[in-house]
Amino acid sequence: MKLRLWAAALLSVAAGTIPAADFPGMRSYLQTVKLRYATEAEAEKAELRPMALPNWYRIAFSGRWDDNALNHYRTHAAMTDHRIKGTFYLTNPGRVRRLGPEFCRKLLEKGCSLGIHTLSHPFLPTLNPNEQFYEIMHLRAIREPDSDSMFSTMVYPYCRFGSNFEPEIILDLGRAMRNTGVIGAPTVRYNKQEQAFGYPAGTLAESFLLRPGDRDPNPEIFHKQLSSALKNSSALEKNPCISISMHSWHTAEGLKTLRKLLQEVADCPDWWYCNQNEYAAYRFEFHQTKVTKKVEGNVAVYTIERYEPATLGAAPALWFSLSGVKPQAVEGAVLKAAAGRLALEVPHDSAYRLPETISLLKEDGSFDKFPYLAGSIGKTGETIAVKLENRGDVPVTRLVLTLRCCAAYTPGVQVRKPVELAPGKSIETKFQLGAMRSELRYRLGKPYFVVEADFLRDGKACRAFLPLRLEADSSLRCIGTTARTFGPVPENFDLSKISLPGSAVSLPELTAGDRVKSAENAIAFRREDKNSQVPAYKVVSVVEFEPVAAGEILFRGDVSELRANGQKIAKGKSGWLVPVRDGVNRVTVVSTENRARLRLSRWLVPEAGKIKRWLVPTTGGEK
């Protein structure tokens, strides 16, 4: 069935309000548009309003495809052969050259874009804020230079981004995303992320995902989901975007089916076929652009405050509906007319462009793509110092430095005013870090900072990344840094005995070597099996602590059994109410795992303010 008929059933999407954006690192600039009319009265009546989508389109249609997969080439061809664009969400290529710059360049062809899927594809909620930010921001710092393109939208590994046991984690993740510059997230929680992640209204673009199947797409599911999306006019008013997704795992027959489905939705005259970065950039400006007007005789003069493409991640022209009569002349925009309607298409000022070349600071202080530039970054006390030296014979102009930090700091982003760096000169900029949040979780892991340097040279827009990652504070103690895990647990194993403080655990240890990444109350471990089809088996995790006082402490978590000090504790409605004594206490928890060779985590969250200190369990005699 052709979808033009379905699209026609939609209600018109109303233009949004234009509140100020409280969004870190988004740089704005001013444009002027002049409309000349026959009379002053006509100029007075003219009104501009931003349009929800360009060119009177009613739906934005795109694609979302995850991971570093060479089969993306097939998916890319299936889309672009039908004039459909999409965004490919990548991870760290490591040393696999086939997934490096050439891979990126091919995926960018015919209007597609790239996005963030984190460095190592972890369960983000189980990482501390420093590691969350590193996973997201450093992916930008290595993949933007790979591709010479911007990564401004993101999707979460495993579609996981929160915890039922620690609701503040989703806000930490939202801060990490904003501090990275993420303005779009086409995920399974359509229209539910912006507020949940603490984003200001109108700053996180979302998309309804069509998920007909990753291997053999099911046309019936596709049509059912698409019909549901098109009928939901209230949801589309908030985010008028639909995307096909999610993995390039198609069988040969599945790829043929995908092509047929894409053909069905191709060439709808009132659909905008865009990539996710374009959609997010357009919607950000739709909501956040400010327009002021003055009338000079018979000329209406509009001043438009909008955002630089280098911070939006894409540069679609912004469209405005125009009320009143048709102007006699237009300056600074392109007048459009259709079916008795008037609009203005306002491209970005040519002085503000996307970076054409992007490079990453090397250990020796040089940049692969900028032989004329040298740099350094370091931290002393609560100050980040950045130095750039222009060793070339051409000035570096409009140099803007942006410091990006993890969720621990307020503000999380600092931007310096543009400066010029003359040939043979250097500049040193110091950023005084803002207030650091007091909670323990913000001090866990390896602090990570990055300075983004945008500049012009020889008329070309360029970007350099200067990253800084410090060592973790090894003295910090919490469940995430002290818990130990053992397994598999055989049948009839005496779990109560090993819940006594100091008891030996005669089982193989599975504790993750990289638990410096762990969230405060996430127990990280790894299974040793290489075969992902192995039967599920039980593991036991051990934590020890000294309480503030003897009594009871409530524990919550996603484990199946809990024992404390030799006793099995029954789970109540709110969790496990554990009797504790003065001195050292031990809690053991059991969970069942069925994934192999993965970094896994389980939640164990103690009642706040009841633990004096955490201890690394001593379990002599384990094998």
Description:
- The protein is α+β, with helices and mostly antiparallel strands and 623 residues long.
- It is built from 13 helices and 35 strands.
- Strands 3, 4, 5, 6, 7 and 8 form a six-stranded parallel β-sheet that branches.
- The longest helix is centred in the N-terminal third of the chain and has 19 residues, at 129-147.
Secondary structure blueprint with pairings:
Elements: H1 4-8, E1 28-36, H2 40-45, E2 47-50, E3 59-66, H3 72-80, E4 87-90, H4 101-107, E5 113-116, H5 129-147, H6 168-180, H7 193-196, E6 208-210, H8 219-231, H9 233-238, E7 241-244, H10 252-264, E8 271-273, H11 276-288, E9 290-296, E10 299-307, H12 309-312, E11 318-323, E12 329-331, E13 334-338, E14 341-346, E15 357-360, E16 373-380, E17 383-390, E18 396-404, E19 409-410, E20 413-415, E21 419-421, E22 426-432, E23 435-436, E24 448-457, E25 460-469, H13 479-482, E26 484-486, E27 522-526, E28 537-547, E29 551-557, E30 561-564, E31 567-568, E32 576-580, E33 585-593, E34 599-606, E35 611-615
Parallel strand pairs: 3-4, 3-7, 3-8, 4-5, 6-7, 15-25
Antiparallel strand pairs: 1-10, 1-12, 2-11, 9-10, 11-14, 13-14, 16-17, 17-22, 18-20, 18-21, 18-24, 19-23, 24-25, 26-28, 27-34, 28-33, 28-35, 29-32, 29-34, 30-31, 30-33
Helix pairs in contact: 3-10, 4-5, 5-6
Defining key terms:
disordered N terminus; 13 helices; six-stranded parallel sheet
Nutshell version of this structure?
By secondary structure, this protein is α+β, with helices and mostly antiparallel strands. It is 19% helix and 32% strand.
